Amino acid sequence: MARQEKVEYYESDWGAVPMFFRHELTLSAGDHVLDVVADSVDARDAVFVDLVSGTTALVSGPGWEARTGQWSGLTVEHEGRWGELQHCAAVVRPHPLPGAEWLAGAPVLGSAVLPLRSTDDVREAEQRFRFTVPAGTVSLDLPLELPARVRIGDGAEMPLDGAELTLDQPCADATECEVVTAPTACLRGGSAWRGPVRVRTVEAPLPLGEWGELGLGGWSGGVTYARTLEVPAGPDPVLDLGRVRGSVAVCVDGEPVGEAFCAPYRFELRGSAGRTVRLEVTVHNTLAPYLAEATPTAWAFPSQLPSGLLGLVRLERRV
Questions:
Q1: Looking at domain 211-316, which CATH architecture does it have?
Q2: What residues does each domain of the chain span?
Q3: Residues 82 and 18: beta-carbon distance below 8 Å
Q4: Mean pLDDT of the 10-28 span
Q5: 146 close to 181: Cβ distance less than 8 angstroms
Q6: CA-based Rg of the chain, rounded to a whole angstrom?
Q7: Interval 83-116: pLDDT, tens
């Protein structure tokens, strides 16, 4: 009745990431036997089926019979992290978190999960959250649902008064923060946070290196490295940025010098010889670090996450 000739799979943590294809079937009234046949002989590969016809819905899953060669048995569900699977279904399923169906839309199949919790041993406990803020951080927005204490770096814990925490002085380098909530047995809605942590920064020294090691692991955007240089007289020098993960724009005294999105990251600084100039290098990365941290996506691969100006940075004089 239908055949899918071409399927391109991208390897994830386990097996292939599911993909969804639509086939229109013409079925008469009555009972039918549906066979789904795959050419693959890899036991990890599986085909799942959604069939919706008026008020009738057929959804495959654990318990379906699988057969290959002389072997047959029941399928089992892989419980690993696939990422967001809503796009792999024919119709919208209920979101697993109560009160969060706005993320995927109202369900067509099933109903919202009841916000109930049943346990024989309910004990109040603190919740601890640790994260790293970049150099230059002067304040943090911590939208918590519970009273909390906060520790910045090696300092002592302090009570959080309101949602915003202002530091006595900017962080000199990447600093670990810990948030400890008041003890609670359960929290309606399932989360101690109303939204993400936000930080406000000022200009601060930033070493060369990968942003993930500098408190910017989930940052997607731009970072500007700036320095004032006394350029010796003679031929105009060439700026060699070495290794960069991202695209680069270079300015001298606010004037654009050049841009590059791949190696070599070399720029001739025309007219700078014999002067004191302000050099600015702005690096932009991709959306991958943000998507990997803020969304349940399977499409941000480890090789896409490193970002930043890695160097070595050299100013070369032509002879």
A1: Sandwich (2.60)
A2: 1-114, 128-201, 211-316
A3: yes
A4: 59
A5: yes
A6: 28
A7: 555 555 667 777 766 666 666 677 777 766 665 5
